[in-house]
C-alpha cells in the first residue's frame, strides 16, 4: 500500500477539485441531500427533548445513533412482549377460577362446608 | 424514517398496556357490576388489582343465576373475599371432587357435609336450603 500523507486541507482540496468534475445533476442531488440533513437537524434542535435524546444517542439523527436507537427499540419491544404475554397468561389462569368460584358461592352447601377439613 | 421510529415506540406502549393496567375504583364500576358486587363495596378499594379482576369476572356471571342463587352469592361474597388463597383452593378442589361423583353418591356426601356443618354452626343451619347449583 502506498504511504500517502493526507492532511485535512489536502483532502478538502482534492474533494473541491473533484466536485468540478461531477455532473450538474449529481451536484444538485448532493446539495438537496445536504439541505435536507441540515433542515432535519434544525428541526431537532427546536424540540429540546428530542435534541437531548439525540445528544445522548437515543433518538435517531446520525447513523451511529440510528443503530443505538434501533437496539433500544428492539429491547423495549421485547420487554413489552414479555410483559403483555405474562399478563395475558395470568388472565387466562384467573379466568378458570371465576366459573368454579361462582358455582361454589351459589351452591346449596355453605362455603364453610367446603373449607372445613 | 422518523415515522417508523415513532410507530415502534407507540407499538411498544400499546403492547405494554395489559401489563400496566391498574386497579379500578368502586365508582368506576358499571351499575350492574356494583349491584352484583354490592357486599364488597366497603372493602373494594383496598382489594388487590388481581382480586378486583377476579370479582369483576364473577360479576359477569351473576345475572345468569336464579334469584335464590344471587341471594346466596351476596351472602357469601364478603366471607369468600376474606378466605386465604389456600382455603379457596381447598374449596375448589372439594367442590370439583364432589361434582365428579354419581348423583346419588354426590347427594349423600353433601348431606354428610351439611349435617357436619349444622353441628358446628347451629345458628346458620336453618338458613341452608338445598337447591340445584349453578353451572
What brief labels describe this structure?
heterodimer, A: 117 residues, mainly alpha, 2 domains, 5 helices, 79% helix, B: 135 residues, 67% helix, elongated, disordered C terminus
Overview in brief:
The complex is a heterodimer of chains A (117) and B (135). Chain A has 117 residues and is an all-alpha fold.
Q: Would you give an account of this structure?
A:
The complex is a heterodimer of chains A (117) and B (135). Chain A has 117 residues and is an all-alpha fold. Helix content of chain A is 79%, strand content 0%. Chain A has 5 helices and no strands. Chain A is rod-shaped and about 95 Å long. The termini of chain B are far apart. The relative contact order of chain B is 0.08. The interface between A and B is large, with 38 and 57 residues.
Average residue-wise pLDDT of chain A: 79
Overall number of domains of chain B? 2
Count of DSSP-assigned helices of chain B: 7
Q: Main β-sheet of chain B, in a few words?
A: none
Write the layout of secondary structure elements.
The complex is a heterodimer of chains A (117) and B (135).
Chain A: H1 8-21, H2 24-45, H3 48-55, H4 63-106, H5 111-115
Chain B: H1 2-20, H2 31-36, H3 49-61, H4 67-82, H5 85-99, H6 103-120, H7 122-125
